[in-house]
Design brief:
The protein has helices spanning 10-23, 41-50, 68-86, 98-109, 132-142, 151-159, 173-181, 190-199, 217-232, 246-256, 270-279, 289-297, 311-316, 330-338, 356-366; strands at residues 2-7, 31-36, 57-58, 90-94, 113-117, 145-148, 167-169, 203-208, 236-241, 262-265, 282-285, 301-303, 319-321. With 371 residues, it is an alpha/beta fold. α1 crosses α7, α1 crosses α15 and α4 packs parallel to α5 (132-142).
């Protein structure tokens, strides 16, 4: 069976790497090809290197300050030729990016089957997150196989009319990737190490922020929150790897560069970032994947969004959704940071056990001809 993996961003690469590596073990059963779009060029290349992934095709669509229109049209037109040349039995996509949606749509136009990893996540608000919520819902309409990370994601798919025999609960492959990379998390750059040595007994808050719906006023709000954090908590350092999108990067650096105990940096490589999360006392993020990684690492996380498609982190007791005015989050910050926030009930990570890739590949292996 020939399969073509399609991805364009760092999170997709991280979450697909375990599946690619697992499938490549069965060379007599699968012919594996990889097409990258380069939606996030530099950040993507770093993950390709760390997981030793070698693309078969590279659309290289990245442009400065590109729009959703740009990404969609370049991916769709690029995949027309790629799919004609590759002729895979299955196109495998992950998650909810514009690359995933556009490549799945191209496969539909070519009548090529689609497998969707991390299927069934929902907020049921089409603008939250934007455009990811509608991307993943569109992919579900196209996909032939749905690999749901949790039982809750499966319920969402069933409620939408997806046949149960096409849905497989596997856990999330981000936990597989986390376990694969933890052995390499001790590396720090010289500048990071210099800052780290200054911290000594202090606490670390890690902040990430990148979603399109948070451009504008929300960026200014997170800057005010960070300034107030270091004012209130004299033993706290804020580590903020800043997303390269100018709608995020420009206002963050304008307002926070040079502030005491606020460490701004370009995005870290994945191994260093996981090492940073392991040292954190608290994580503030609008990311989906980091909610999963924080939960797996046992780190309290404040989700800077109106809604989350990963309610398991909230139910687990380690996450808190910050709605409305984020600057009212300080009671939660105090609880999680100062008063040593604890889980409500000890339990296994709801997002997986590190075996998701094995389960996904097992589905393909068990029914290659039928699929």
């Amino acid at each position: 069976m020939k399969v073509l993996f399609a991805f364009g961003t760092r999170p997709e690469a991280i979450k697909l790497a375990p599946v690619i590596k697992e499938m490549e073990k069965y060379k007599k059963e699968f012919e594996v090809e990889i097409c990258i779009t380069g939606q996030h060029r530099k950040m993507l290349d770093e993950v390709l290197a760390i997981f030793s992934l070698k693309p078969t095709y590279d659309l290289n669509i990245m442009r400065e300050d590109q729009t959703l229109f740009d990404i969609n049209t370049r991916v769709l037109r690029g995949f027309e030729d790629i799919l004609e040349r590759s002729k895979p039995r299955y196109l495998i996509v992950q998650g909810d990016t514009t690359t995933a949606f556009a490549s799945a749509l191209a496969a539909f136009y070519k009548k090529i089957k689609v497998a969707h990893i991390e299927a069934g996540l929902r907020t049921y608000d089409k603008y939250t997150p934007f455009p990811e919520e509608m991307n993943r819902r569109f992919i579900s309409l196209i996909a032939d196989l749905h690999f749901a990370p949790t039982a809750g994601a499966k319920r969402n798919l069933l409620q939408e009319g997806i046949a149960e025999d096409k849905i497989f609960v596997t856990g999330n492959t981000v936990i597989d990737a986390l376990f694969m990379i933890k052995e390499k998390t001790s590396i720090l750059t010289a500048r990071q190490l210099k800052v780290w040595n200054k911290i000594q007994s202090g606490k670390i808050i890690v902040v990430t922020f990148h979603r399109r719906e948070n451009f504008g006023k929300p960026v200014l709000a997170i800057c005010r929150i960070i300034k107030e954090i270091v004012r209130r908590y004299k033993d706290v350092w804020v580590f903020f790897p800043v997303h390269p999108n100018p709608n995020i990067k420009r206002p963050i650096y304008q307002r926070l560069k040079g502030k005491p105990r606020v460490f701004l940096s370009p995005p870290l490589d994945y191994a260093s970032f996981i090492g940073l999360l392991e040292k954190a006392s608290l994580i503030l993020t609008d990311s989906g994947g980091i909610q999963e990684e924080a939960t797996a690492l046992g780190k309290p996380v404040l989700v800077l969004r109106e809604k989350t498609e990963r309610p398991e982190a909230i139910e687990y007791g380690i996450g808190k959704l910050v709605k409305g005015n984020w600057e009212r989050a300080f009671p939660d910050i105090d609880k999680m940071l100062v008063k040593k926030h604890r889980l409500k009930t000890p339990m296994r990570c709801p997002f997986g056990d590190g075996q998701a890739a094995k389960r996904i590949v097992a589905v393909f292996r068990s029914a290659r001809e039928r699929l």
